[in-house]
Amino acid sequence: MGLIALAPAASAAKKPDPCKVLTTAQITDQFGGTVSPGVKGLTTAVNTQCDYQVSADGARPKGDFHVTLMFIGAKAAYNGHKTSSIYQPVSGLSNGLYFSQAHALEVLKGDTLLTVQGLFLNLTSSTGPTGFTDVQTQLVALAKLGLKKV
Question: If you average pLDDT over every residue of the chain, what do you get?
Answer without folding.
Answer: 88
